[in-house]
Amino acid sequence: MLIRAFNYKQWADQRTLDAAQALATRDGAAAVAFICQQLNHMVIVEELFRARLLGETLPHQATNTAVVPPLEELGVRLARSNQWLAQFVADAREEVLQKQIPLRFMDGQPGRLSALEALFHIINHGTYHRGAIGHALDLAGAARPADTYTVYIHAAEPQRRLA
Q: 103-142 pLDDT, tens per residue?
């Protein structure tokens, strides 16, 4: 299920990026700026958790940046993150997933999560921010992609629609 969840995340993120790109081609600068800020935050959090899962130095000191990268760069970083996450969960053994990771959250407070909990957070976090992006797309009068798990599973496995 974890592998499928990250395949779903990759699919949903791409649909969101495609909708943002479509909006960027018309007069939607304010909404695109908000979308880029949300995507920037999403990918920074994923990069932070990747470093934590690998026991590496954190690549960021905060969960957003003063200067937000352009949509194209965010799309590349998000795709890279999704590819790494999909490979990590495909290769992860149960003992790796259950391993407790001591960490310091960005608010400065210490904490501990299992690798599985960190991965669940990444899935949940992306869903939350795609919802905010969907609302921005609605307000801009743009097409909002359906990105629920059930839409994904029927796209990935159309035979499930058969009676």
A: 988 889 999 999 999 999 999 999 999 999 999 999 999 9
pTM: 0.94
Topology (CATH) of 2-158: Four Helix Bundle (Hemerythrin (Met), subunit A) (1.20.120)
Domain ranges of the chain: 2-158
| DSSP annotation string for the chain | -HHHHHHHHHHHHHHHHHHHHHHHTSS-HHHHHHHHHHHHHHHHHHHHHHHHHHTPPPS-SSSS-SSPPPHHHHHHHHHHHHHHHHHHHHH--HHHHH-EEEEE-TTS-EEEEEHHHHHHHHHHHHHHHHHHHHHHHHHTT-------HHHHHHHH-GGGG--
**Residues in the chain with pLDDT < 70?**
163
